[in-house]
Each structure stands twice: as structure tokens, then as C-alpha cells.
Structure prediction request, 162 residues.
Amino acid sequence: MNVRFAIIILLVFFLSTFARAQYTMHKMITVGYTYQNQSFGEVGGKLLFLKNDDVIYRLGGSALMGSANSKFAIMPKLQADILLNFQKNVDFYHSYYFLAGAEGTNKYIAPKIGVSLFGILDLTGGYAFPIGNSGINGKELKGLNVNFTLNIPTVFIHDMLK
Prediction:
């Protein structure tokens, strides 16, 4: 119940920021690695919303897959990010962004910060707070949270297949 409430509040907050102006949306496929007291592979998708390149919003969902206590486990993950770069008049326009966001699964919630190169390659870190006494296969999921994610725009994939 608490996870659903937190996710709804987070989504309402991010969606309310889009009501002010016309934003464009881009779809991305994500693959990555997550360390949350255990190693997980990540596969999913994200929606990227932007009006200009200074502030970018992303919402995503993915599946975390890995082995916990020698048993295969899968967890759903929802996430929301804000990417910021207010640098003007540079040669290589907006090559990096500062990233702030949060991710949540049915086992933990983790605020995070990090950097993103071109909005495509993300390196983030944070701290996970467990939801209740729920672990995965007897493994408690709390503490340091590290993510390395590659976000591949579907437009790029479409252009490669032409």
C-alpha cells in the first residue's frame, strides 16, 4: 500500500509539471546493471519528455533480474528522473547532465543522484530503504544502490534498420 501511494504521488508530481507547456516525448529501451546488496541485470523502457535541452524528465519501468541466495529472482522497477544542464554557448552542446530521481520496486525505494552523458549513458548512486520486512529469497535489500544504465532511443534503432 505504501509503495503504491508513493508511486502515485511521484507520478502526479511529474505529470503536473508537464501541464504548463507543450512537451515532446521520445521512447527509449534501457539495459543496465543495478547493485542493491545483490547484482541485478535490468531490461525495460523509458519515456523522455522535454521542452528544451535544459531540463529533461524521464519516466520508466523495467525488470530487475538476478540471483539472490542461489535462486533466480525478478523484481519490477518504476523510476522517475530529472536531468539538468543549464550551460549555454558551449561547443559540444549539453554533453552531460546532472541527474536526480527515485526508483521503487516491490521490495525497496531508493532516491538517487548521478550524471548522464547525452541522456544516454547514466551512472547513479543512492541509498535504498526497504519496504517492510520484505527481502528477496531471504536477502535483505537495503543500503547502497548503484546503477549503470544504457538508454537507447527507439528512433536510433529505427534508423539503423533502414
The radius of gyration is 16 Å.
